Fold this protein.
Amino acid sequence: MQSELALHLESCAACRARLQQEYELDRLITAAVNRATPAADELVAHIEKRLESKLTRRFFPWQWRWPALAGAAAVVLFCAILLTRFTSSNSMHALCQDAMDDHRSEVVLREPRRWHSVSEINDLVRRTVPQARIPQSIAGLPLEKGRICGLLQAQALHLVYGDGAQQVSVFFVLRQDLPSDSLPLQNSAKRLHQENDAGIGVASFAGQGLGVVVVGTPRLARNVADQLVRSL
Amino acid sequence: MPHVRSLLRTAMRLCRRQEVAEDLVQETMLHAWKGFSQFQPETNCKAWLFAILMNLWNEHHRKPWVRHETVMEEEFDFDQQVVPGNFDDRVFMNEVLAGIDRLPEEQRCVLLLSVVEGLALREIAEILKIPMGTVMSRLGRARATLREYMRPNPGLMLSSRERKLCDAMKPKGY
């Protein structure tokens, strides 16, 4: 193709002249653009400086990236373990929380529930915790009312003791219906688990095949639980 | 540092403002440095750098605030180019430069990459992401438009050298 063009140009003066004009135009364009371009020395120096600064900035993270990553992973792992430990489903805490929620809504806030009078409570005891000996009063507070409810999806007897000025909830549930770790110790009635949440105290213990959770003001809950531990 | 002057040469004609052109070249070199692993050694480094430059320029164009930074054609004084040399040369070169700068950008890019930078048509097509036929037609149109611009003004007194140059640029039969 190029040889054909060369041959043609040798024989055609017009095309030769046209090509010459193209070359001239190209030379003119190149010369004009070149002459209007400022010296690039300063720019080159500036670019080199920026690249050098980037290189020195990158050196440190690059060198320490694996230790840094390992450290970050360790921190994340540690946080995850802590988080799991404190937020995992702690059955003992869940049982207390459940009882506390019931006490708050049904006794403190008096949300409408169907309560049974003292005369009907014996029947409720028979149906739920037949082996329990239910005291008619604890810590000077007489038995007011009772109902059957659920604690951790187990059937429980919720009894309310009160004298008009203060009230305490006592939940009885069959030990076998609860998760094994939801009460302090399997056969030790003396061990109490206590929690406080915004002015409400919870005490729980196990004994004689029963799980017992007491909810009220912190001191009252503790006193009632102590008396129940002794009586059971 | 290779090709910086070439990049600056083209950038100057794209941006028409030295500080913007220098920023563009600087960004081009930084991008090239960061993405050097993408460069294929058997290919033309200059074409690769120009591809980066054109990409950055296109991105720059897409930004809404770009119109405040670059000089628009209507406000660009084509006669105020700084071209060194003697007076006659300066006047004539300014005319040529003004002609180049008046070209539509798409034609100007192709003309600069082909004529000034000496890149192959295939490389230009890759840089601008257009078919090779489009490159050729744009180049032809750019040359023709430039010739049109460069027609000597009848009222203008030209030196014999300028006249000779202008004659050389006239299409056959003009």
